[in-house]
Write a structure and sequence with these properties.
It is a single chain. This protein is mostly beta strands and 149 residues long. It has two domains: 33 residues, no CATH class; 82 residues, Immunoglobulin-like, CATH 2.60.40.790. Helix content is 9%, strand content 31%. The protein contains one helix and seven strands; from the N terminus they run αβββββββ. A four-stranded antiparallel beta sheet has the order 1-2-7-6, with no helix packed on it. Strand 6 and strand 7 form a beta hairpin. The radius of gyration is 22 Å and the shape is flat. About 8% of the residues have low confidence.
Length: 149
Protein backbone atom coordinates (compact mmCIF):
# COMPACT_ATOMS: atom_id res chain seq x y z
CA UNK A 1 0.00 0.00 0.00
CA UNK A 2 1.45 3.36 -1.05
CA UNK A 3 1.52 6.29 1.30
CA UNK A 4 -0.11 9.37 -0.22
CA UNK A 5 1.13 12.62 1.29
CA UNK A 6 -1.66 14.84 2.50
CA UNK A 7 -1.90 18.40 1.31
CA UNK A 8 -1.25 21.11 3.79
CA UNK A 9 -4.13 23.31 4.87
CA UNK A 10 -2.49 26.24 3.08
CA UNK A 11 -2.51 24.32 -0.23
CA UNK A 12 -6.19 23.53 0.17
CA UNK A 13 -6.99 27.17 0.99
CA UNK A 14 -5.08 28.39 -2.10
CA UNK A 15 -6.93 25.89 -4.30
CA UNK A 16 -10.27 27.03 -2.88
CA UNK A 17 -9.36 30.73 -3.32
CA UNK A 18 -8.38 30.17 -6.97
CA UNK A 19 -11.68 28.43 -7.60
CA UNK A 20 -13.89 30.97 -5.85
CA UNK A 21 -12.24 33.94 -7.60
CA UNK A 22 -13.79 32.69 -10.85
CA UNK A 23 -17.31 32.54 -9.43
CA UNK A 24 -19.75 35.45 -9.83
CA UNK A 25 -20.52 35.74 -6.13
CA UNK A 26 -20.65 39.11 -4.36
CA UNK A 27 -17.96 37.90 -1.96
CA UNK A 28 -15.71 36.31 -4.60
CA UNK A 29 -12.40 38.04 -5.09
CA UNK A 30 -12.45 39.46 -1.60
CA UNK A 31 -14.78 42.42 -2.15
CA UNK A 32 -18.31 43.09 -3.19
CA UNK A 33 -19.24 45.69 -5.72
CA UNK A 34 -21.64 48.44 -4.84
CA UNK A 35 -24.01 47.36 -7.61
CA UNK A 36 -24.33 43.96 -5.96
CA UNK A 37 -22.98 42.25 -9.06
CA UNK A 38 -20.17 40.52 -8.68
CA UNK A 39 -16.55 39.69 -8.57
CA UNK A 40 -13.73 41.90 -9.74
CA UNK A 41 -12.88 41.48 -13.40
CA UNK A 42 -10.21 42.59 -15.81
CA UNK A 43 -10.41 42.43 -19.58
CA UNK A 44 -8.02 40.06 -21.32
CA UNK A 45 -5.38 41.77 -23.44
CA UNK A 46 -2.97 41.02 -26.25
CA UNK A 47 0.15 43.15 -26.58
CA UNK A 48 1.60 43.29 -30.08
CA UNK A 49 4.90 44.86 -31.14
CA UNK A 50 5.44 45.93 -34.73
CA UNK A 51 8.30 47.82 -36.36
CA UNK A 52 6.49 51.13 -35.90
CA UNK A 53 4.32 50.76 -32.79
CA UNK A 54 3.10 48.85 -29.77
CA UNK A 55 -0.54 47.81 -29.71
CA UNK A 56 -2.59 46.82 -26.69
CA UNK A 57 -5.84 45.09 -27.63
CA UNK A 58 -8.33 44.57 -24.80
CA UNK A 59 -11.56 42.59 -24.91
CA UNK A 60 -14.28 44.85 -23.49
CA UNK A 61 -17.65 43.47 -24.62
CA UNK A 62 -20.56 45.42 -23.21
CA UNK A 63 -18.44 48.42 -22.18
CA UNK A 64 -19.57 51.71 -23.69
CA UNK A 65 -16.99 54.09 -25.13
CA UNK A 66 -18.15 56.74 -22.63
CA UNK A 67 -17.24 54.40 -19.75
CA UNK A 68 -13.59 54.02 -20.85
CA UNK A 69 -10.57 56.06 -19.84
CA UNK A 70 -6.99 55.72 -21.15
CA UNK A 71 -4.22 57.67 -19.41
CA UNK A 72 -0.45 57.86 -19.54
CA UNK A 73 1.62 58.93 -16.55
CA UNK A 74 5.41 58.64 -16.25
CA UNK A 75 5.64 55.86 -18.82
CA UNK A 76 2.73 53.83 -17.43
CA UNK A 77 -0.33 53.35 -19.63
CA UNK A 78 -3.55 52.76 -17.67
CA UNK A 79 -6.83 51.55 -19.13
CA UNK A 80 -9.88 51.99 -16.89
CA UNK A 81 -13.55 51.43 -17.43
CA UNK A 82 -16.78 50.04 -16.18
CA UNK A 83 -19.26 47.53 -17.50
CA UNK A 84 -22.74 48.47 -16.32
CA UNK A 85 -25.18 45.77 -15.31
CA UNK A 86 -28.40 45.89 -17.28
CA UNK A 87 -31.54 46.76 -15.36
CA UNK A 88 -33.75 43.72 -14.95
CA UNK A 89 -37.48 43.66 -14.38
CA UNK A 90 -38.53 42.86 -10.83
CA UNK A 91 -40.47 39.86 -12.12
CA UNK A 92 -37.45 38.41 -13.93
CA UNK A 93 -35.72 35.48 -12.25
CA UNK A 94 -32.03 34.98 -12.93
CA UNK A 95 -31.10 31.34 -13.46
CA UNK A 96 -27.41 31.86 -14.09
CA UNK A 97 -25.08 34.87 -13.83
CA UNK A 98 -21.64 34.33 -15.35
CA UNK A 99 -20.76 37.74 -16.78
CA UNK A 100 -18.74 40.13 -14.64
CA UNK A 101 -19.79 43.74 -14.10
CA UNK A 102 -18.22 46.70 -12.42
CA UNK A 103 -15.03 48.68 -12.71
CA UNK A 104 -11.67 47.51 -14.02
CA UNK A 105 -8.19 48.94 -14.29
CA UNK A 106 -5.14 47.57 -16.11
CA UNK A 107 -1.72 49.25 -16.18
CA UNK A 108 1.25 48.61 -18.46
CA UNK A 109 4.78 49.98 -18.21
CA UNK A 110 5.80 51.14 -21.66
CA UNK A 111 9.28 50.56 -23.09
CA UNK A 112 11.69 53.47 -23.36
CA UNK A 113 11.26 53.78 -27.13
CA UNK A 114 7.50 54.40 -26.84
CA UNK A 115 6.40 57.78 -28.19
CA UNK A 116 3.55 58.69 -25.82
CA UNK A 117 2.82 61.94 -27.67
CA UNK A 118 1.32 59.96 -30.56
CA UNK A 119 -0.90 57.68 -28.46
CA UNK A 120 -4.20 56.68 -30.10
CA UNK A 121 -7.13 54.68 -28.69
CA UNK A 122 -10.15 53.27 -30.51
CA UNK A 123 -13.07 51.21 -29.25
CA UNK A 124 -15.06 49.16 -31.74
CA UNK A 125 -17.05 45.92 -31.65
CA UNK A 126 -16.16 45.06 -28.06
CA UNK A 127 -12.44 45.68 -28.42
CA UNK A 128 -10.28 48.57 -27.24
CA UNK A 129 -7.10 49.11 -29.24
CA UNK A 130 -4.43 51.44 -27.90
CA UNK A 131 -1.61 52.21 -30.34
CA UNK A 132 1.65 53.70 -29.07
CA UNK A 133 4.14 54.66 -31.82
CA UNK A 134 7.83 53.90 -31.43
CA UNK A 135 10.43 56.67 -31.44
CA UNK A 136 12.88 54.88 -33.68
CA UNK A 137 13.27 51.77 -35.75
CA UNK A 138 12.74 48.41 -34.14
CA UNK A 139 15.84 46.62 -32.91
CA UNK A 140 17.08 43.97 -35.29
CA UNK A 141 15.82 40.47 -34.64
CA UNK A 142 19.11 39.09 -35.94
CA UNK A 143 22.24 39.28 -33.80
CA UNK A 144 24.78 41.75 -35.11
CA UNK A 145 28.48 41.76 -34.50
CA UNK A 146 29.83 44.93 -32.93
CA UNK A 147 33.31 45.80 -34.16
CA UNK A 148 35.93 46.24 -31.47
CA UNK A 149 38.20 49.24 -31.89
Amino acid sequence: MAIIPSETLKDVEELFDRYTRTLPWPWAGGRASSAGALAEWNPRVDIVETDGAYEIQADIPGVRKEDLKVTIDQGVLTVQGERQQEKKEDSARMHRVERFYGQFSRSFTLPEDADTSGLQATAKDGQLTVTVPRKGPAPSAEPTQVPIQ
